[in-house]
Amino acid sequence: MTKHSAFSAEDAAPAQPARRFTSYPPASCRTAAAQAATGSWLDAAARRAEHDDWMEKHPSALAEFEAVLGAAKGKQVVMFLDYDGTLSPIVKDPDSAVMTDEMREAVRGVAERFPTAIVSGRCRDKVFDFVRLAELYYAGSHGMDIKGPTAQSKHAKAKAEAVLCQPASEFLPVIDEVCRALTASTAAIPGATVENNKFCLSVHFRCVQEEKWRALEDLVRSVLKDYPDLLLTKGRKVLEIRPSIKWDKGNALQFLLEAQGFADSNNVFPIYIGDDRTDEDAFKVLRSMGQGIGILVSKIPKETSASYSLQEPSEVKEFLHKLVKSKQRD
Ligand SMILES: [Mg+2]
């Protein structure tokens, strides 16, 4: 049979009688639509169940505020606050991540009543420029650059202006060198920005097209292969590069408790609030201490060592207000 005859045979097949639809859409479409609707309903139900299950394990620190207070009763509360995504919303341009005046007042109120530290991946000076409260402790560069309050604070044990801890100071020249190399090599990827956080670096890709994320990570890794003493981790739309020394936000928390005179104290109740993977180190320290609580800021279920959750910075502000009010009740 020739191709032509095969074609002709198909062509010559008896014509099907025209289908008549008694209703629209046809039954087959209705079935597909119903299946799609059922599928998305099941997906939504599964997501809701997952969320409910997660909330049971990590309840809202606002809903459970009285339980938090009960656990802290008779103990010295010490506050630790991450900055980005905790006190300020995550924004496209990291230089625009300002905190609101209301949030600043909430933090000021807490700092008047409890020793309070900001623990951030940012350069310490930059996070200070955002927060602008001199009565706080600041731990920048993921805790690798810690300084005491520069203003009079009844909670400050250390001398004002004193830099308390810089465990990665020998890495300063290499961080600067890698910053220059990364800035040059990532210039070809629109939207990528390299932030020098003094003792560590951040490569932000919030403004990079998703199909370029892989290429950006490959570029960063290719620069870092010449620097085996630096470690790459991923956060929320950011690649973090830091010295591979064993020093993280958890160590910073322990260091600050010690600096404030609470080493080995059973009478202290640290509260750490953060939103990202690097905050997990601090949550783990609190778990292992068996003291205080970690609060993860997240709207979606995430693997975490935190005990409680808050959805977003506005809830963090409300939690801080409640804490201030509870102290006024005492
Ligand atoms: Mg954060």
UniProtKB/TrEMBL annotation:
Required co-factors: a divalent metal cation
EC identifiers of the protein: 3.1.3.12
A Pfam family annotated for this UniProt entry: Trehalose_PPase
UniProt keyword annotations, A-Z: Hydrolase
Catalysis performed (reactions): alpha,alpha-trehalose 6-phosphate + H2O = alpha,alpha-trehalose + phosphate
GO molecular function annotation: trehalose-phosphatase activity
Pathway this chain belongs to: Glycan biosynthesis; trehalose biosynthesis
Root EC class: hydrolase
Similarity comment: Belongs to the trehalose phosphatase family.
PANTHER family cross-referenced by the UniProt entry: TREHALOSE 6-PHOSPHATE PHOSPHATASE, TREHALOSE-PHOSPHATE PHOSPHATASE 3-RELATED
Function: Removes the phosphate from trehalose 6-phosphate to produce free trehalose.
Protein name (record): Trehalose 6-phosphate phosphatase
Organism field: Urochloa decumbens
